Amino acid sequence: MTSPYRTLLAVPGARAFVTAGFVGRMSMSMVGIGIVLLVSAVTGSYGIAGTVSATMSVAYALGAPLSARFADRYGQRRVLVPLVSANAVAFTFLISSAVFDAPLWTLYPAGALAGLTQVSMGAWVRSRWSHVLTGTAIPMGAAYSFEAVMDELIFVAGPMLVTSLATGVHPAAGLAVAASCTLVGGLAFARLRETEPPPRPREPGTAARGGVFANPAIWIMTPIFLLTGLVFGAIDVSGVAFAEAQGHKPLAGVLLGCYAAGSATAAFWYGARNWRASLDRRFLTGSVLLAVLLVPPLLVRDFWAMLPVVFVAGLAISPTIIPGYGLVERLVPAGQLTEGLALVSTTVSIGAAAGASLAGRVVDAYGAKASFGVPLAAAVLAALVTVAGIRSVSKRELSSQTIAE
């Protein structure tokens, strides 16, 4: 492990909350697939399974920033303990409704409750890093890079784990383990009081409504994250469809793993550097690079040639997402940090769901090769929005820094 990461994990209490946070957010790559595998097994319909999963995703997008706002205001422990407990009850309701042949409509409120109580644990972990690194010489970029690697590991391991459990043990097993990860990791995370950021009640005179959206720069950043998420979701579907079209469907996971490996490699490299370029310039560069590197996958026609091509394309992910998190940290007040970071996660998730759906429609209509045009188009749009709005974001960032000082 390179020196910045060794130093990072030497921070008192860091290893404990990193471990708890890793377990707690394993479910983020498992619950969607777990719902599809369970519901399709008991109903025989992927359509119903998909709509239940989508219900959960929409509810999560609505609930996660709100629970993060409460965590900023009242403290992580006070919010997390009842939240993950309610989440366990909601998933028990969902699993029971499916397994014991409850009326079909019960799956939808159960899925909605599960989504509303799902925790954007990655945002909570990053907020805790911001707290423990305050006053140290360790840059937050190293922490964001480290967490980006953790996310990639989760998105490689989680789907394989939930699929193996659902197909090899019981259709409900994968979803049950995913829900257990949220509960166990969340409760363990909540117990770590020494590294918990202090609650920051809303100050008199600050905007009561709108939360982080009261910041105009967030209105620029949000569509960029949405389009970036669309890239991720579309790549997943396009990759699976391409592998199947080439006669290598069992190796679809390897193809997507190469994309994740590229991102993880870039994250390690990014966090180990001492950057002189400003955050906004790095974010702009990453956005443009993301679009440029998605051109080759549209041109490749051989499965084995596609593996290194998507690895290279993945190299642009972390240099885009990491400075994006850094900009949000600079743009929002300290008392809204968890909410701001949760907004990034949920916006990317919404984009990913939309990207998967859109790419799937293109696959059905025009074939697997054409579907790689979806992530490319989304990346180009994200780069254009970044180019158009980065100056305003930069001005707002400088203003926020001046106020903080």
TrEMBL record:
Alphabetical UniProt keywords: Membrane, Transmembrane, Transmembrane helix
Domain (Major facilitator superfamily (MFS) profile) ranges: 217-405
Gene3D superfamilies noted in UniProt: MFS general substrate transporter like domains
Statement: the UniProt record of this protein carries the keyword Membrane: yes
Tagged with keyword Transmembrane: yes
Topological category with respect to the lipid bilayer: Multi-pass membrane protein
Annotated protein name in UniProt: MFS transporter
